[in-house]
Amino acid sequence: MEGEISSALLLKERTQIHGGGSGGKEQRGGSSATTMVVLSTLVAVSGSYVFGSAIGYSSPTQSGIMEDLGLSVAEYSLFGSILTIGAMIGAIMSGRIADYIGRRGTMGFSEIICIIGWMLITFSKASWWLDVGRLLVGYGMGLLSYVIPVYIAEITPKNLRGGFTTVHQLMICCGVSITYLIGAFVSWRILALIGTIPCIVQIVGLFFIPESPRWLAKIGRGRECEVALQCLRGHNADISDEAAEIRDYTETVLQLSEASIFELFQWKYAHSLIVGVGLMVLQQFGGVNGIAFYASSIFISAGFSGSIGMIAMVVVQIPMTALGVVLMDISGRRPLLMVSAAGTCLGCFLAALSFLLQIIQSDLYRIILTRYGRDSMGYYV
Fold it and tell me: Which residues cross the membrane (predicted)?
């Protein structure tokens, strides 16, 4: 039985046939990136930029918010961390919402929530306004973190899927970096208002891109699925093979009974589960969120300019993420993961070593002062 289900879920590779004659313009399979695929991806990753700007917001605004609203370190820490709580709630609900109202509908709903959150932060007069606004932005961010990669994967040809889905991460990085950069020159209220711009851009853009063909097929709207697929692959493309593939896959999935979450913990899934969860744990416990949320104060505590430090992060982050997009389908996922994990480990070690040396230097200075003191001219005696 298990073998039958596995073989049923394996999608058959279909031969991609291109017109070979001098006048042949028709394409089968849609293996190239059309203008509509590129446009749809750009509209989708506008939400990825929102994701990144939400992560990067708390770092350059920390001193301004604490001074203007009189917040303590603990109150500001709540403001910074409540984003992840909202994101967890949004991520839990994201699958159901995306299946119920569609990929485009979920992105639009997420952006409306984010706009409300950003406006609450912009006009905040008390700490609870900030917290509610940050929670709403986090909720929208949690929805976007699921629906954007799913939408991009469902609209792109399989041979381009890896590179296109990586643009999601690139735009997150751009959102973080550009928010750092702008935050060094504008106030925290203006920065929050600027955060609504990519939200509006995506909402407007959603009116000009098609819905995911796979979602349309899943809910039984076969004719609309073909129209959306034709729009994505080009008017001269032959979509019959891909449409049949989507239809076969959807029918097979619908015939399967919905699995319980407890079935995931069977021994045969142990290796995959450990690898998948382990990678997520590795990413979070690597400290990326802590550094992103409080980069400015970290640089200041290290005796460095917060603004210059964040600009330096921008200079490093964007090119390296862009390089990852280029190498994703060339070198593969595993080598990139190993190299990036090693680099992260080295970076964390050097940062920890620098703070350790700073503590040792401070202790030595204190011991010298205590033991020898200074004379009236300020020299050690």
Answer: 35-56, 76-97, 109-130, 136-153, 165-182, 188-209, 269-285, 291-316, 336-360
